[in-house]
């Protein structure tokens, strides 16, 4: 059997490098196509959910029709559940939202979950994601946040050092506020997992590892 084909659908340039640095290294049997429309971030910021949903759905359809993907991974944490349900209903292939498996894992790590957010529209979406995971897993949690939009601005400007410094400080703040575990709301933060775990001595969750595990499960690899 040949390599299994998947499409990664991006709404930000910041998610391209983390996923493409991790997935092929861990699963070389995947053939990955990346589709990016970084204008979708602006649509989420302005609240134009119908157009954002349409653009994401169009990229998923291209992944199947042009590149013959078996599954699409939506690397945009800002998509609310209602829009995800509509995207899935319209999709010709299964669609995995990159942070859903992470949320299911995180709610088992403690009762007080810290969330670091660098793209503000993701804040409430991540809260809802964790609450939904709590309902599914029969857990109860308290959520506390550190909102650091300057970090994403720095990353998109090519200043990774400032991005990492700001997020490291945010993780320390969450630890001092009593977080039992920390969730990184954007996949663009994932390279910091091990550094932050060493610093705060708490579990830190990103969507890289957990989403790839789910891709592997769905493709029966």
* Portion in helices: 40-55%
Query: Can you tell me the number of structural domains?
Result: 2
Report the biggest beta sheet as strand number plus sense, adding barrel if it closes: 4 strands, parallel
DSSP, total strands: 8
Along the chain, the helix and strand elements come as: EHEHHEHEHEHEHHEHEH
CATH class of the largest domain: Alpha Beta
Number of distinct helices? 10
Protein described:
With 221 residues, this protein is of the alpha/beta class. The protein has two domains: 4-99 and 209-218, Rossmann fold (3-Layer(aba) Sandwich); 100-206, Rossmann fold (3-Layer(aba) Sandwich), CATH 3.40.50.1860. Helix content is 51%, strand content 18%. The protein has helices at residues 16-26, 40-46, 49-65, 81-90, 100-106, 122-137, 149-156, 160-176, 193-200, 207-218; strands spanning 4-10, 30-36, 71-74, 95-97, 112-117, 142-147, 181-184, 204-205. The strands form two sheets. A four-stranded parallel β-sheet has the order 2-1-3-4, sandwiched between helices. A four-stranded parallel β-sheet has the order 6-5-7-8, with helices on both faces. Strand 1 (4-10), helix 1 and strand 2 (30-36) form a beta-alpha-beta unit. Helix 5 packs across helix 10 (207-218) and helix 8 packs parallel to helix 9. The mean pLDDT is 93.
């Amino acid at each position: 059997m040949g390599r299994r084909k998947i499409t990664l659908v991006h709404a930000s340039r910041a998610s391209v490098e983390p996923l493409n640095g991790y997935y092929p290294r861990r699963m070389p049997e995947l053939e990955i196509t990346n589709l990016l429309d970084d204008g979708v971030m602006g649509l989420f910021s302005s609240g134009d959910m119908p157009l954002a949903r349409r653009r994401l759905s169009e990229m998923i359809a291209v992944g199947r029709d042009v590149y013959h993907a078996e599954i699409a991974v939506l690397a945009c944490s800002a998509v609310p559940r209602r829009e995800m349900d509509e995207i899935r209903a319209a999709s010709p292939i299964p669609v995995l939202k990159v942070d859903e498996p992470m949320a299911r894992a995180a709610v088992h790590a403690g009762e007080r979950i810290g969330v670091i957010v660098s793209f503000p529209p993701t804040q409430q979406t991540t809260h809802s994601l964790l609450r939904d995971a709590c309902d599914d897993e029969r857990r109860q949690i308290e959520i506390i946040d550190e909102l650091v939009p300057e970090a994403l601005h720095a990353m998109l400007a090519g200043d990774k050092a400032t991005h990492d410094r700001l997020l490291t400080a945010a993780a320390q703040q969450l630890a001092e506020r009593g977080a039992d575990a920390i969730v990184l709301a954007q996949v663009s933060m994932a390279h910091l997992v091990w550094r932050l775990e060493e610093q705060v001595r708490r579990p830190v969750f990103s969507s890289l590892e957990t989403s790839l595990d789910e891709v592997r499960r769905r493709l029966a690899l």
